[in-house]
Amino acid sequence: MKSALNQKDREILLNNTTTDLGFGTNSQDYVQALLYDTNDNLIETSVVESSDYSVEDGSVKLKTGTIIRKMGFDRGRYRVKYNFFRRKAGSHEVVLVDGNNQIYDGSYHVMENGHIMKGEEHSDGSERLYIKENKYLIHEISPSRNEVRVIPQNINNKKYIDDLFYSGKKRKRTNADFSVKFITANPGGTTEVLKDSITLEADKDVPLDIKGGLVYIENALIKSKIFEVPETSTLTQPENEIIGDTLLARWVVSDTSLAKITGGNIFAVNESWNQFSGPQQDDPTSIEELIKSYESDDSNNRVIPFDSPIFAGESTIKLKSVSTKPSDAIGVQYTWTISGRDFHQGKKRSDNVGIQNFILDGTQDVGIEEAGGLGNVRYVSPISTDGSEITLKLNDRNMELGVRLKIETKFNNEDLVSEVYLPNIIRTARFQ
């Protein structure tokens, strides 16, 4: 049976390698039918409707009689050839575009003059649509006829343009809709050993056309997380306490004139309120659990909330309450507590970092000046109506400090308490 390609084009396109891509496993797969007479003259070509064939166990079953009749031939003797294709760019279909050459897939209606218009019914504001083939244009053929330059039509659609771009690529990067797991020895046992191989898990078969490709696992190994701070948070921060209907603990870094900032953003504190307040405001036990999850002996949790500020060692900063409190509250008592960890300082940047000690009362690494300076990490203020501000001395490098603020007052003969704990919110630089 004759080919639809001439001999010269066949020699250019064909080689001795074949690849099983698993026809029917990709939504872009389709069947082309070529109808010949008994003398092998090509009569008609057509794309087979998906309802006229099925793929079972790697075999394709076609309804040849139905296919020929749909091509307009109901009697006679014919030869049929089928081509099995996978679309890489464009298609045999047509598309509708608007006046800006954007592909339109909504409802439309046809006027008596043949014009296609947007919408189901016509109105004075109806916009005209235009038919374009979902194909590309041959711009130039090389003298040797071994190369061809193909360009897109004036169709303003990202997929249409990207498909053409990637059709000329030997490699294509794509996002997979399946999960990846490292294989371990002795799974579920007490001594699981990570192997240097992975398994792919999916509800459907993994596409065969990625066979031989590379798998990139995003965020496979995470030492710490730094959450992005929205730009708006750097524009303003509260300067004073707020009069409101409730009691809500909040604080900011109010003064850095005696400190050197080496990284991060002091305004990140604002964003951390939303991340770490929530249930802990009304449930003190949740704060204790949160502290344990970040600072216990068996915790390796070093997640940094947002881009928290980093100060040079031997810096002094001030923390100020900007809490919300009722107007008729009878004074407020403020309890500040500094916790966290001091990490081993290696001599070189490549040295491993380990926990040296936890920040407790008596350490000389940090201290609240109002409570007596270095070695004092808890300060209970006198009852005040003017707020509270503490001076925090940072005497060592490579620390990650959490700040806990508890405020208490009486309002309408009721005891009100609010707490906020921000883990790892103040850091000191490892090297400076």
Overview of this protein structure:
The protein is mainly β and 432 residues long. It folds into 4 domains: 7-86, no CATH class; 94-167, no CATH class; 175-221, no CATH class; 231-428, no CATH class. It has 5 helices and 28 strands. The chain has helices at residues 7-13, 64-70, 158-167, 268-276, 284-295, and strands at 29-36, 42-47, 53-56, 59-62, 79-86, 94-97, 103-104, 108-110, 116-118, 128-133, 136-141, 148-152, 179-185, 193-201, 242-244, 251-258, 261-263, 310-311, 315-321, 324-326, 332-343, 355-358, 366-368, 373-374, 378-380, 389-394, 399-411, 414-428. 18% of the residues are buried.
Q: What is this structure's SSE topology?
A:
Blueprint: H1 7-13, E1 29-36, E2 42-47, E3 53-56, E4 59-62, H2 64-70, E5 79-86, E6 94-97, E7 103-104, E8 108-110, E9 116-118, E10 128-133, E11 136-141, E12 148-152, H3 158-167, E13 179-185, E14 193-201, E15 242-244, E16 251-258, E17 261-263, H4 268-276, H5 284-295, E18 310-311, E19 315-321, E20 324-326, E21 332-343, E22 355-358, E23 366-368, E24 373-374, E25 378-380, E26 389-394, E27 399-411, E28 414-428
Parallel strand pairs: 15-20, 18-28
Antiparallel strand pairs: 1-2, 1-5, 3-4, 6-7, 6-10, 8-9, 9-10, 11-12, 13-14, 16-19, 17-18, 19-26, 21-22, 21-25, 21-27, 23-24, 23-26, 27-28
Kindly state the percentage of residues in helix: 10-25%
Shape: elongated
What ranges have pLDDT less than 50 throughout 5 or more consecutive residues? 229-235, 347-351
Average pLDDT level:
80
How much of the polypeptide forms β-strand, as a percent range? 35-45%
Number of strands: 28
Distance between the termini: 78 Å
Largest sheet: 7 strands, mixed
Q: What Rg do the Cα atoms give?
A: 35 Å
Number of domains: 4
Task: Determine the number of helices (DSSP H or I, runs of at least 4 residues).
Answer: 5
Specify the structural class: mainly beta
